[in-house]
TrEMBL record:
GO terms for biological process: glycolipid biosynthetic process. It comes from the Eukaryota. Residues 8-140 form the Saccharopine dehydrogenase NADP binding domain. SUPFAM superfamilies: NAD(P)-binding Rossmann-fold domains. InterPro entries: NAD(P)-bd_dom_sf, Saccharopine_DH-like_oxidrdct, Sacchrp_dh_NADP-bd. Belongs to the saccharopine dehydrogenase family. GO terms for cellular component: lipid droplet; mitochondrion; plasma membrane. This is Saccharopine dehydrogenase NADP binding domain-containing protein.
Amino acid sequence: MADRKYDVVLYGASGFTGTYVLEAAAKSDFFNLKFAVAGRDKNKLEKVLHEVSDLVGKDLSKVPVIIADSKNEKQLAEMAKSTRVVINVVGPYRLYGEAVVKAAVENGASHVDISGEPAWLELMQMKYGDLAKQNHVYVVGASGWDSIPCDLGTNFVKQNFKGTLCYAETFAQVKSGEAGYSFNAGTYQTLILGLSEMKNDNLGAVRRAIMPEKIERP
């Protein structure tokens, strides 16, 4: 992938979560990579670049803008072909996510998302895991705040605990900002869809397909 135009494309940059990801990226060394934003609406993308520029005190007006709609396979494929990694923050993923994963894996780009939807995450693993391996790319799901502490904590224990670990408990503390506690409409929609479709998700069958043999407890 040495000839890719971008290192990272942030898909859904003008949304609630995308704005935060863009702000965090702009404040970090991560932004020294070849970075682009993508979404359906050019005006909204340019607006969020302007807003985040004011927040971080850095000119983002030259950041490339890519137009890609989750319902347009051609646009998604072109986006995926242009980058090494797609960071996808457009949810609910059960409605809009698979097309982006498919485009990324088929066109040689790794895919990172913040989904907290087990049925969708494991279905993507079942459907695209083998192709991702063949194309030497990664599909990294559940990279949101509720999963990262567990992943990092488990890795820390693995590196530093010398005994035999039977189980681990994790604790997270949430601190509210000036606006208090709230969550956005996309998160609410994800929750409602997850509850309403729980009986139809066939999560047990998907899990058995991914891992036919159970891992024995130590």
